[in-house]
Structures are given as C-alpha cells and as structure tokens.
UniProtKB/TrEMBL annotation:
The keyword Iron-sulfur does not apply. This is L,D-transpeptidase. Keywords: Acyltransferase, Cell shape, Cell wall biogenesis/degradation, Peptidoglycan synthesis, Signal, Transferase. The active site is at H317, C335. Transmembrane segments: none annotated. Residues 1-17 form the signal peptide. SUPFAM superfamilies: L,D-transpeptidase catalytic domain-like. It comes from Actinomadura rudentiformis.
Length: 388
C-alpha cells in the first residue's frame, strides 16, 4: 500500500512487503519504484516536487509491468490523460493549475499482481496570471440572436495569443464553422461563418489554467459558460424607402415605417450594412456628438424605448415628433425614428445579437463599429486568428 510522502509498493500475497523510496526533486523530477521481483513504475514529476511549471506534463512509465489505471487528484483543473496501446506509458492531456497540489496514483500489474504507486507534487505559483474577466453574452437567463458573437476579455494583454487561443473551445449543439479574431491584445471575439441555428445551446470553454500566456505568465483557472441562442429574429430595412420588415424564424412579424438620418452630414447619415442589436434602455438621453450647448446643431433629447445598433450613436427609438415623416422622409440625426407603439414593440421583442440589415445609404457601417462584425467576409475575419 502507498506510504504518504513517498512512493510505496505493496506486493499482495508475498511473504514480505517491500517499501521503496523514490527520489524527490524540487524541479519536479521523476520518482521510481524498482524491484528484482516486480515491475517498476516511474512517475514524473516526482514525489515531493515543488514549483513544477504548470505547462509540464505528467508522465508515467512502466518497465516489466503494465499500467492498469492512472488518476490525478488536485485542487485545480481536472487532469486526464492518454494510455499507450501497449499500456506502458501514460501522459496527461493538458496543463496544470498554478499554485496547486496534485497527487498521481498509479496501479500497475506484474505477474498477475496489482501494485500501487503515488507521487504528490505542487506547481509554481507565478507572480502574474492571466484570467478571463468577461465573457459576453453573460446575462442570466438571456437568449441571444443568431448573429451573436462570443466576446472574451482578459485581465492583461496576451503575449502568446496562439497558446491561449488553442484552449478556447466553442461547441454548439448544431455545428457551424467559426473562428476567433484578436481585436486588442486583451480581447478576442468568436464569429461563425453563417448565423447560428436558432433554438440551441452553445458551450464555451477555456481550459486556461496553466497555459503559458507570455513570459512568466500562466493562465489562472478554467472558465466555462453556456449560451442560449433564441429565435432567428432578422430585420431588413431600406433607408431610402423608409421601411423595415421584421421576421422570426422565417415568418414575417411586422413591417415598420421609419424616418432615418437626413444625410446632411456624414454623422447624420444612417449606416448601411449588417448590424447587430447591442442593448436597449428606456429612457436614453441623446446628445449631439462633438457639440456643446450654444453650438450650431446642438441638441439634447430624451427618448424612450431605444435599441442600440452601433457605437456611433445609432438606435431605433420612439419619436412621436416625427410620426408624419415616418415611412416617407428621412429627418433624423442618424437614428431610426419609430412611432411610440412600434418602438415599444421592437424594444420588447429584441434580443442582443439580432440581425439588422440596412441598405439604401451611401455610408457603410465599419466592421468594428459596435458589433458589426458581419461586415467582414469570413475569410478576412479568420486572418485575425493567431492560428491563421
């Protein structure tokens, strides 16, 4: 039976039990069980190892014996591994949690007898770790639209982006191709080639614990999140024709007249292109960009039932003052002005990540304006991956 603090061997049914001591290594060296009468097992890192690098593998090798079972117990990430076809070697399948203690228990067979060996070691506690501080979408109970990206932000810039990206996994119930793109050194975004299939769960996992993210920086812990994709709500509108049609799962719900930007300046021109609905609020105070009170063109207006679709101040919102122009003329400062009843209806049904596709203006929305990532072709999008 194993002896705590050492690698022990107990030979069941023999006249005597032999307890064999393994060498210890602060750098995580190997410990070995050896005997003339039994097979030997070597475990790396060895028993008593300290400050083992989190990206070091756990390896088990058997000589003149076969491995029956290898388990790893610890305070951090769950560690599993792969046994070779000849049952002579075993190797862990992932990195280890920094600053954690692990115990490896090995059962091997020799001459029909089962022997047990253990190794307990601790991993390095680095001065700097990498953590996920936000995964969007993240609202409790939220269902999102079929265009929704997955946006991951870290607590510090990532130097080894490829190593981190390799452990980011997205698993939808209904498979679709997708790719990550690094927007900034501390943010990476996942987008699919085509829209998500509606009404499904998507699982995001980041097996980040122990991953080398840069010089002397290791991932702190794993993260996982389940995302619910709701109905396929897609709005298509023509700015020059002043109307948009809303569908849900391919069925028309409503056609809504609107008044878009008057086009007198670039900022007063509603953007064409594929947008995503980003957030909603009621009320919202609209203030003219780059102008202060008293300047020509200054305005400050409180609106109700506002749904944002870009970072350049574009919303759908209630505009009772322009109902007479809705459906016939563009008179706004760039937003889509709706009647109070239509604005509330759209506000009530919206999901973050719903698609709003607009045509009919000479200003195209930039791919990085808000969540307008669908403006990029998927082939161009993939070039932003560290694994491209």
């Amino acid at each position: 039976m194993p002896v705590r603090g050492r690698l022990g061997l107990f030979v069941a049914g023999s006249a005597s039990a032999a307890v064999l001591v393994a060498g210890c290594s602060g750098g995580g060296g190997s410990g070995e069980l050896a005997s003339n009468e039994t097979g030997s097992v070597t475990i790396t890192p060895g028993n008593g190892g300290a400050s083992v690098k989190p990206d070091s593998p756990i390896e088990v090798k058997a000589s003149n014996a076969t491995l029956e079972n290898v388990t790893v117990q610890g305070e951090g990430a769950t560690i599993t591994g792969k046994l070779s076809a000849d049952r002579k070697t075993w190797r862990s399948g992932r990195t280890l949690t920094p600053g954690a203690s692990y115990t490896v228990t090995v059962q091997s067979r020799h001459d029909g007898k089962i022997n047990t060996a253990t190794s307990t070691f601790s991993t390095l506690k680095p001065a700097k770790t990498l953590s996920v501080i936000d995964v969007t979408p993240n609202l409790k109970g939220e269902e999102v639209g079929v265009g929704m990206p997955i946006m991951v932000r870290f607590n510090r810039p990532v130097t080894d982006k490829a190593a981190v990206e390799r452990v980011l996994q997205v698993t939808p119930e209904k498979p679709v191709e997708g790719a990550w793109r690094w927007i900034t050194p501390d943010q990476v975004i996942y987008r699919t080639r085509t829209y998500w299939a509606p009404h499904q769960k998507v699982r995001f996992t980041a097996q980040l614990a122990g991953v080398p993210a840069g010089k002397d920086v290791y991932g702190a812990k794993d993260v996982e999140q389940t995302i619910s994709i709701g109905a396929a709500q897609i709005t298509t509108g023509n700015i020059s024709k002043h109307r948009m049609t809303v569908t849900r799962d391919g069925k028309k719900l409503r056609t809504i007249p609107f008044s878009a930007g008057n086009g007198q300046t670039r900022e007063y021109t509603t953007t064409s292109g594929v947008h995503l609905l980003m957030e909603k609020a009621s009320p919202v105070t609209m203030v003219s960009p780059g102008r202060k009170e008293g300047d020509p063109g200054y305005y400050k207006t409180v609106v109700q039932h506002a749904v944002r679709f870009s970072n350049s101040g574009e919303y759908t919102h209630s505009a009772p003052w322009s109902v007479g122009s809705q459906g016939s003329a563009n008179v706004s400062h760039g937003c889509l002005n709706l009647s109070p009843s239509n604005a509330k209806w759209y506000y009530d049904i919206m999901q973050r990540g719903d698609v709003l596709k607009l045509t009919g203006s000479d200003r195209e929305v930039e791919w990085n304006n808000g969540w307008s990532f669908w403006q990029e072709s998927f082939d161009d999008w993939k070039q932003g991956s560290a694994l491209a």
